[in-house]
Specification:
The structure is a homodimer. By secondary structure, chain A is α/β, with parallel strands linked by helices. Chain A is built from ten helices and 17 strands. Chains A, B: This is DSD1 family PLP-dependent enzyme.
Chain lengths: 381, 381
């Protein structure tokens, strides 16, 4: 047993640098650094081969340390955030180029966003002409320029103005507004990321790219150039990359992968992008009531289950069979587990799983190399 | 627009005391204090009428402030926690009587648990004779007494030793171990809480109470009295209360209610216990792309969806139709919503929803009265 007694604050962190994996307090979010670095390198290679910028989505990990690695080793031009509070956390941590891939409508949030532009390049999405005046006034109040993308609904059915003429009208309003700069289009197709069949996914993105190209062309005719045509996620990026329309990829999950993305097949039948599992929830067995059942300490508060239950990693004959708030039931069928044994789980969905934890325990092999705070954890407002 | 500029730290909290509900930064966890107080009073009355102790489960809210209200106004004898780190947070905040309703097997966690007994009454569950020696050694190391309940599997199919003779053998081992005190039985039936039909729920708890009564009797024959026979949740407590076997109720969700518990019918066809909605996720509309669709700012990182999507509160013709990480899609069918309008959502499942947030915004009517930290948020290890 590792002695934590000289380290009171240890009770607020799940591990200490230098510790063996078997001494980590569970459940804990662990990152395989070697796998993470290989994923960073793969994505850099993919973006370079396509001649595109990578603007990595930080909503997946919410970590300023991983964002810095994406920009440094991973070659990203900047990051995406989804919320103003998430962007605030990243600007405070020194990230200098952020696209908020979302609409901001509340007057206080618009003010907060404009203040960030005093310290970083800030780009935001707009899908409604009524948003232009308030955004412009916030920028002018702080004497800054906020860049704006027109978000179009390219088939995803969530936010976004209609492509074509309505989008052009909105772009013109932005271009004419003091304190704002029209920077291009946001054309992200979320549901496409999770279409398992590559041909169906390709067709969905082809349709999205088509309406996007048409809008870019109409904007050009109206004298408005798109510096950024952004979209794409880990599931679909090869299709946006070859479209000839998009120039910035917004992939996020590629650094970690998750059980849901493992279902998504590339055109060659392998994993999209060749990415490997770098993120795990480490759990311990705490009860062994029957030969065919064990209970581990990672449930709904340690794992997001919206996209399915986690997969047990690297173990035969052991399956994660059900989650309650603080328990996971393991079905034992041909395998075995011992009391207090550590087991790695691949989360069903990495983004909301990371948001449950305060720390990433970063492993080199089986040893804790460092701890990274989940910088923007809970920053959803 | 409320001016937050003199209050930099305001960007880390979703509201300030005295603020109107319409100025709260969203998404935020809000509590209706009047409804919360009525729920506390209802549960106190129910427990008193049954002649039972209430040991409120703090895993639902993870708030030391609400735990203190449950013990004070709500008449609880103490609280339950589910994890050692959750108990640590509550002991640090001054709570003096805690049952950890779970097994603790990791040697470091056993040491942490024993240290808590230097500052509070600590009771823990045991379901395996192999756990007795390590727990006893941890208690002796710190010169404390840790109380232990034998957890029996009364039909829930999760943790727990078999009722009857195996449970008695375990109790005898605890009673004989230095540093430990045998305190009774833990006989909680989790799945029963969510059986909608009252007759089926009654039958399930009757079966659980039967094996529990048999085990209590065998223990008595062996010279071991049960100070605590604990179990029951918000869905089933009327049945445990009338069983004549249980003497401590462990209800948690009663303070808040959620959309899942609204499905659970009492025998008179009404809500179990008469509890009302006191917890909401406050969200704002940020996009209105089509007449039949709006998009709000509360998705998977603001709301747990494991037990279903949230219910829109107090609004006709508006339905929460789908959650992505940071967005909620509202189907508009007969109602209407405006950009930046605040809407209350009743979470599908209150426990993991509270664990997503850092603050409870406590409302008196439509005004913020105070903010409470989610004391043990993320304390799952």
């Amino acid at each position: 047993m590792r002695d934590w007694s000289a380290f009171e604050i240890g009770y607020d962190v799940p591990a200490l640098p230098g510790m063996a994996l078997s001494d980590v307090q569970t459940p804990a979010l662990v990152v395989d650094l070697d796998a993470l670095e290989r994923n960073l390198d793969r994505m850099r290679t993919h973006a370079a081969a396509a001649g595109m910028r990578l603007r990595a989505h930080a909503k997946s990990h919410k970590s300023a340390d991983i964002a810095a690695l994406q920009i440094g080793r991973g070659g990203a031009c900047g990051i995406c955030c989804q919320k103003v509070s998430e962007a605030e956390a990243m600007v405070r941590a020194g990230i200098g180029d952020i696209l908020v891939t979302n609409e901001v409508r509340d007057p206080v949030k618009l003010d907060r966003l404009a203040r960030l532009a005093e310290r970083a390049r800030i780009v935001v999405c707009v899908d409604d002409p009524e948003n232009v005046g308030p955004l412009s006034r916030a920028a002018r109040r702080h004497g800054v320029t906020v860049e704006a993308l027109v978000e179009i609904d390219c088939g995803a059915g969530r936010c976004g103005i209609r492509p074509g003429a309505p989008a052009v009208g909105l772009a013109q309003a932005i271009a004419a507004a003091e304190g704002l700069r029209f920077a291009g289009l946001q054309a992200y197709h979320g549901p496409a990321q999770h279409i398992a069949d590559p041909a169906e996914r390709a067709a969905t993105i082809a349709a999205a790219a088509d309406v996007t190209a048409r809008t870019v062309s109409l904007l050009w005719d109206a004298g408005l150039a798109c510096d950024i045509v952004g979209g794409a996620g880990t599931g679909s990026f090869p299709f946006e990359a070859r479209s000839g329309v998009y120039n910035e990829l917004q992939c996020g999950s590629y650094v970690f992968m998750d059980a849901d993305y493992e279902r998504i097949r590339a055109e060659d039948g392998g994993r999209v992008g060749g990415f490997e599992n770098a993120l795990f929830v480490l759990t311990s067995v705490m009860s062994r009531p029957r030969p065919d059942r064990a209970v581990c300490d990672a449930g709904l508060k340690a794992l997001a289950v919206d996209s399915g239950l986690p997969r047990v990693f690297g173990r035969e004959g052991v399956r994660y069979d059900g989650a309650s708030d603080e328990h996971g039931v393991l079905a034992i069928d041909g395998g075995d587990v011992a009391i207090d044994e550590r087991i790695r789980l691949v989360p069903g969905h990495c983004d909301p799983t990371c948001n449950l934890h305060d720390w990433f325990v970063a492993l080199r092999g089986e040893t804790v190399e460092t701890l990274w705070p989940v910088t923007a954890r809970g920053k959803v407002f």
